[in-house]
Amino acid sequence: FSPAVFRIVAFAVHAAALVGDGEPSAQLKWFACLKQLLNCRFYTVRVHATELRDIVALVTQGLWKLARPSLSKWSGDLSDFFTLDELETLAGAYSGSCSLADQLLLQVLQEYESTTCQSVRRVLVAFGPVAAEAYVRERIGRVRYFIERDENDVGVMGQDVVANGLAAIDGGRLLRTVTEFPVMSVGASSDVSADTQLLGALINHTCQGHAGAPDRSLVYDVQFVLPWMWTVVSSGAGIDVRRLIDSNALGVVITALSSDSERVRKLAYFTLDIAYKLVVEAHGLFGRNQCVLLLDVLRNGVVGRSDTQFPRVPFTHTLFVATSLPVTLRPEHEMYGAVNRLLLRRPWLKPSEVPLLRAVIRSSVEGVGARAYVLRLASQMARAFGPCADAFRHADMVNTVLAQLSALGDVPAGRAALTMLFHISS
């Protein structure tokens, strides 16, 4: 471990020995120590450092475990809880990924909300390094102009909060979350035991710099991003619908309809119901009619939806719709014509088809980029080959792959075909 790790641990131990000498219990002493740690100006910087992230998160979660018994949901004194600035510090430290550090920080926020009945949804709308920088600038302005903050604003969801949250979200990571959506494992519990957390931290440090170690920080945690999306669309504040589509936030909700967890599908259906109304009412949005038509095509293919039934939609359909929504807003996109022709030709998607695959591959109009795009999309769909096996058999995947691997095929399409073949056979 680097010397900075020992400095952080030494700070926590020293603060625990100094603060709260007059407190009636040891738990309150640990809570005061945790508050002092969050108020340190180096905390956000250290928690986003690659070599220190897991250690800082483990120290934060350990202090919280020691301090949690002192908190009460019936307390009326705001000094017994985190201040709004301290909650924003935790939100700025949290990146929303599936890494160990983010799982620990999210667990602290969720347990704090359940223990104190103080909502943290408002501060979690804007999270990550971009939000942390905005929080720091705002605090500097309040100090400079002697502005006092109302701590009761912790539950206020204004238009500026939603705008900051949409600006802080990473569209590239959301797109990767869409294409790599864990349709077969989302329903698993996200609770991590202390032994597992410590073991994960040791493994991360042991495998640091290993080329084969998967980077779990490149995708968002679905257990967080789906409630985040629900909070945004149900806030009632003015929402930039184009940003909602361009950032692929709406696409994550659509792909969640393919999850094997009924709880995840239920939240996705409710969120999509509100988001659909936002798209319909966005009259100033270029491409609104195409977006509504694409969502209608998806909705017309869902059979058996009711207030108590939330059917699972094929991953071939949800991934196609999720990735095609941003295409409908860009006429210069290479797939714009193919997507619009499909929407005008058919009011729904057949369960036993891979959308656009056969049409684009056999077309003499589409270029090399369009064929490679469709094959790359089909290779991502093939990850869920079990539930979508009929669709790939109907699309005659063997002949499609062999045609793209022939001497007459182009290189990008051939690479995408090989990736699809690997996913089908694995």
Name the beta content range: under 5%
Cα-atom radius of gyration: 24 Å
Helix percentage range: 55-70%
Mean pLDDT: 78
> What is the number of beta strands?
0
Structure class: mainly alpha
Q: How would you describe the shape?
A: elongated
Give the H and E element order.
Answer: HHHHHHHHHHHHHHHHHHHHHHH
Largest sheet descriptor:
none
Tell me what you see in this structure.
The protein has 426 residues and is mainly α. The protein is built from 23 helices and no strands. The chain has helices at 3-18, 26-38, 43-47, 53-67, 84-93, 100-116, 121-124, 128-144, 159-168, 171-179, 194-206, 222-233, 241-246, 249-255, 262-280, 288-300, 315-324, 336-345, 357-361, 368-381, 389-394, 397-404, 411-425. Helix 22 packs antiparallel against helix 23. The longest helix is centred in the middle third of the chain and has 19 residues, at 262-280.
